[in-house]
């Protein structure tokens, strides 16, 4: 039995085909109110089920999403800063500074998208796609920090109640903060899913946690107006719990990427596409992994005995086309072609 690997140009050939098909989900999500809660608290990346196929276009959309969200968050913080100037609230000033600093956590992701566009070299032979996953890990750490800060502050205010001043201004700042952060969260998560970026989805979740913090301020003010001054720290503890739920889902998605985990449905789709080629009797060692928002695919194809090298090359081209047609966001495709010689034959064939 001889292993035949197609020429290098077949491994990373772009195959300029028009992929106008839809990639189907192999799993279902809850619907109704339960589905809405699932969407808010566990907004996973769907493993790029709806992602676009061109790598540069995907990176460009990611960079554009980071730029736009930075502008929106900047305007949100500036609006809060104006309220601080009018009200003179020191607490609001601290929250505004916090929002400014959180907006800057998108910068590492911006850098990661730029690095991901660089070509592979002798040192980084697989390219720089992993920079995006490292940025996702940094964002997870920031979400964890937000949960710790929110929890500690809520417990402190519960133990040492402090009166809230300028309630009207505090309410206005909280509403602005929640609206701006939630708008950015929805946008980042949507684009992250479209381009297959778990890190961008995680950054959207980070914006959502900041929005939840601002929402806690709004609910706390309403509680104080209703004659329940402890509403502020109690709501803060509830928001901390919500952030922890978001943290779990985000850490799971980013962790799976770092451990080369993929949605099993993608593996099954790849195997199905390869095993239904005309000249292929079986596909084995089908392996997928993410590098940033691109899928790398490896597989061994077992061809019919006596298959010629030319026929194997044609089969490799057909197999790569089938992979790119069946899966979203495919980067490199590495195929090993094997032709099994008959048991009675005493010679090797390719």
From TrEMBL:
Record flagged with keyword Transmembrane: yes
Keyword line: Membrane, Transmembrane, Transmembrane helix, Transport
Residue ranges of every copy of the Cation efflux protein transmembrane domain listed in the record: 66-259
Membrane topology: Multi-pass membrane protein
Organism annotation: Xylanimonas oleitrophica
InterPro entries reported for this sequence: Cation_efflux, Cation_efflux_CTD, Cation_efflux_CTD_sf, Cation_efflux_TM, Cation_efflux_TMD_sf, CDF_Transporter
Protein name: Cation transporter
Family: Belongs to the cation diffusion facilitator (CDF) transporter (TC 2.A.4) family.
GO cellular component, one term: plasma membrane
Keyword Membrane applies: yes
Locations listed in the record: Membrane
